[in-house]
Amino acid sequence: MTIELSAATFKLADQAALSPAQQQLEQTLLTFIREHRQQPKTGLFVIHGDAGTGKSAVLAAAFSRLQALSRSQTPNDLQGTENYLVVNHNEMLKIYKRLAGEDPNLRKKDFQKPTPLINRLAKTATPADVVFIDEAHLLLTQPDRYNKFTGQNQLTELIKQCRVVVLVFDTRQVLKLKSYWQTSDLAPFLAKYPQQTFNLDEQFRVTGNASVINWIDQFTQGQLLPRPQDANFDFRIFADGQPMYDLIRQRDQQVALSRLIATADFPYVVNHGTWYVTAGSLKIPWDKVNLTDDPWALRPETLNEVGSIYTIQGFDLNYAGVILGPSVGYDAASDAIIVRPERYEDQEAFKKRDDLGQLTPLKSQLIFNSINVLMKRGRYGLYLYAVDPALRQRLLAL
């Protein structure tokens, strides 16, 4: 198996590298924009796809093409349009801004977080032509004082300010109650506005075969399958965290972009010293607040840290060592994976909401979503260590 060194942590491919389905999506998307940009109602284009199906890659390629037409000196129907790409994720925003420095069609100001863009467009009362929203499942669905968002729903506010909205949406990557979405929550928007949907279902990140993908999918729904077999994908289960970390370090030296990542099951307080993740004999710091312009996975020193769902969501790694913390357990009677929300340390993710009914099953789903995000990071290998002794023994016995 030949492994290419990756220069970025999600594949922002050129046109030649896009798959036939991605190329079809790009063409369909630009046609939709042309048809709906001057209509009286905002047009909505929704892209669905699981983690690793190349949503960000095709979105970036289409946005670059749109901006090339907007800034072209040759007259065309999209010349002079005002367009933005929005993502509610600091680390992904850094990658997009880095992309802007490498692409003559792009500017750093083209890429925004949602709240500043919403507030600026509302203040100027001038609508944008097209707004692309990557990871739209991270948009807020309630007011958030910390993020200075006073509206009820960020998607609602963006639709008010734009002629066409293109959004990438995957409910299996929702990680917090304050941005809680389920597929049915899109229905009122789709019923109210002219819309089109496109599904990406080919896995581009994880190179493992169908048995590997199915094993992960079933695990994140609570079910255990026999250990998947794939000679070209390195899938391993460890009895201790230290040898897993040693192998990750070795892989990073060989091919780069190999990191430890973990469920949010270990104490952490922002800007209050160093906090640690414990995995058997391994004790290693959580990721630090990243004030640099470089995304977490691209910084060499982060090989000595453990990444969280918030630093790794949306990115490619070559090899991922995943630590399943105390909230992830095993029920022998049903031979099933269980989760324990009371053991989950990211209680900010469970911030109380009165409009969602019974929260316990939703909290469990958020934990399973986080596991799905973590397990689908590694392109060429997935290594697992479970803190819970019963789960660890069951995995080792597969």
Automatic annotation (TrEMBL):
Residues in AAA+ ATPase domain copies: 41-179
UniProt feature coiled coil, ranges: none
UniProt xrefs under SMART domains: AAA
Transmembrane stretches, start-end: none
Designated name of the protein: DUF2075 domain-containing protein
Organism from which the protein derives: Lactiplantibacillus nangangensis
